[in-house]
Amino acid sequence: MVKKGQLAQWQKNMYALWLGNFATGAGSSMSLPFLPLFVSTLGNFPKWELTLYAGLAFSSTFLSQAIVSPLWGKLADKTGRKPMLLRAAIGMTITATLTGFSTNVWMLIALRLIQGAFSGYINNAYALIASEVPREYSGKTMGTLTTGAVGGQLVGPVFGGIIAGALGYRIPFFIFGALMLIATLVTLFGVKENFTPIKKDSQQAGQSAFAGIKNIHIVWAMFVSSMLIQAATNSFNPIISLFVRQLMHGNGNVAFASGIVAALPGIATLLAAPRLGQLSDHIGAKKVLIAGLVLSGALFFPMYFVQTVVVLGVLRFFVGIADAALMPVTQTVMSLNTPPSSVSRIFSYNQSFQAIGSVIGPMLASGVAGILDYRYVFIMTTFLVLINLGVVTWAYRKDRK
């Protein structure tokens, strides 16, 4: 029985995990803007080779994450989510710190690959809260939890760039390790999980992760939607500074302008996610998700025609509001359709799909920009959003039959 004015345990867990998500988001994004520059210090590479190694260093984390996540999710449903949170936090503490000591590019790529295999803190935070939060607070809680990761991803590149410029490219990796150590301690002492492991000889122990799911086609649609959201969101990352430089005709502080344009969606998501999550609790996740996809497509298409950085920045800000209606809501839909006994496995599969999207989006964008022009990336992204809208609409129409 929770006394009036006293926080329930799931609320205490949410605040602790918000801090852990913030540390993870900030640390993991801190080194990404200058990763190619760090690679360039590890050898004398021609342009094509530098691009190749930078791409491998960036994508290797997501590739290993996509492969290993389901295995960790299966283990989480047997041992609990808190041990998996600690496993991810400790693993990233070690790998991030060691990355700062990289002496050659292959050591960097290998450590990034290992980091991806031990990652999954944010995903397990979602799974733990999804298994505990009352259904009537699910949307708002997932939205609030999202602001931790988004807030971290917003400040990480800014502080990482300042620190790298003043102290060198290796220091942000050490700070990443320190942040994950903080996440480890916060999780160890601040999170309490009431977990009952499934008995080995029980019927549930041998069941598939999809057994007992109410609307399996909706859950699969959320997997595909998560992948397409990540692909669309990340597609602009490889070309953002190049497109901004083109709009500014090479004049002015391109790096600063690029940083502002990159940060604006995160600011909007940070402001809108809890409110849109709460709205989904009242009017239903389906309406918020579809509205977010329609808004997203309506914003990406006009970016093809922009002529100034200001207009691009305004459109990017509103894309952040659309993003706030997408990823948290897909997490909410999955939590509402998944039994507690398999929630970690389902969320880990979703993480794999997200990781695949994080690889596919930038690769497609780089190809489109290289063959055609930067502007055509927005056309490509619009098509990704339309495909996503079709998948979600199909799933909900099938649910009515």
UniProtKB/TrEMBL annotation:
UniProt subcellular location: Cell membrane
Chief localization: membrane
Origin: domain of life: Bacteria
Major facilitator superfamily (MFS) profile domain: residues covered: 13-400
Pfam families recorded: MFS_1
Name this protein carries in UniProt: Major facilitator superfamily protein
Keywords: Cell membrane, Membrane, Transmembrane, Transmembrane helix, Transport
Membrane topology: Multi-pass membrane protein
InterPro entries linked: MFS (IPR011701), MFS_dom (IPR020846), MFS_trans_sf (IPR036259), Tet-R_TetA/multi-R_MdtG-like (IPR001958)
Transmembrane residue ranges: 15-38, 50-72, 84-103, 142-167, 173-191, 212-233, 253-276, 288-307, 313-334, 378-396
Organism: Ligilactobacillus acidipiscis DSM 15836
Record Gene3D superfamilies: MFS general substrate transporter like domains (1.20.1250.20)
